[in-house]
Amino acid sequence: MTQTEPTPAATSAKDCGGFDRRYDVQGLDAIDVAVLDTFAAIREDDPVRYPGEPSEIVISTDEFSPVCPWSGLPDFGRLEIRYVPREKCVELKSLKYYLTSYRFVGIYHEHATRRVLADLVALLDPLRLSIDCDYGLRGGIRTAVKANYVAEDQK
């Protein structure tokens, strides 16, 4: 007897609609570094000098969401930026646009975290900068990535 239709056990994952699906992703060139803007860390028109150590600035968002380069599915992470400015601070609206530009970029967690670090170091020339990104669970596995930078003259 010849069987013309596969039994459920014989049906491959590929035939089960959705298991072989992949969403298109954008490349690294979609990361909009040009949108980033800065302002002076110290206002020259302020007659009061700022005493003490330089300020540490902490910026965080729960809305960082690049996509998996393999599946194209979104990854959601809590991104925290900590830096001690030398002369410039990052303007927050421009930072939001920059981070949003990752929304369809296929990039691994580790690479995304280091890329944000590299772009902000190039923009700000800070004394110190760290990026912490704690990504949501995927398949029961959590990924947390930390990348640090310390300027040569601060070591």
Automatic annotation (TrEMBL):
Pathway(s) served: tRNA modification; tRNA-queuosine biosynthesis
GO molecular function: preQ1 synthase activity
Protein name: NADPH-dependent 7-cyano-7-deazaguanine reductase
Family as reported in the entry's similarity comment: Belongs to the GTP cyclohydrolase I family. QueF type 1 subfamily.
Reactions accelerated catalytically: 7-aminomethyl-7-carbaguanine + 2 NADP(+) = 7-cyano-7-carbaguanine + 2 NADPH + 3 H(+)
Primary localization: cytoplasm
Keywords: Cytoplasm, NADP, Oxidoreductase, Queuosine biosynthesis
GO cellular component terms, A-Z: cytoplasm
EC number, as in UniProt: 1.7.1.13
Sequence positions that bind substrate: V90, E91, L92, H109, E110
Organism: Deinococcus radiophilus
Gene that encodes it: queF
UniProt-listed HAMAP family: QueF_type1
One Gene Ontology term from the biological process aspect of the record: tRNA queuosine(34) biosynthetic process
Record function comment: Catalyzes the NADPH-dependent reduction of 7-cyano-7-deazaguanine (preQ0) to 7-aminomethyl-7-deazaguanine (preQ1).
Enzyme's top EC category: oxidoreductase
A Pfam family this chain is assigned to: QueF
Record: active site: C68 (thioimide intermediate), D75 (proton donor)
Compartmental location: Cytoplasm
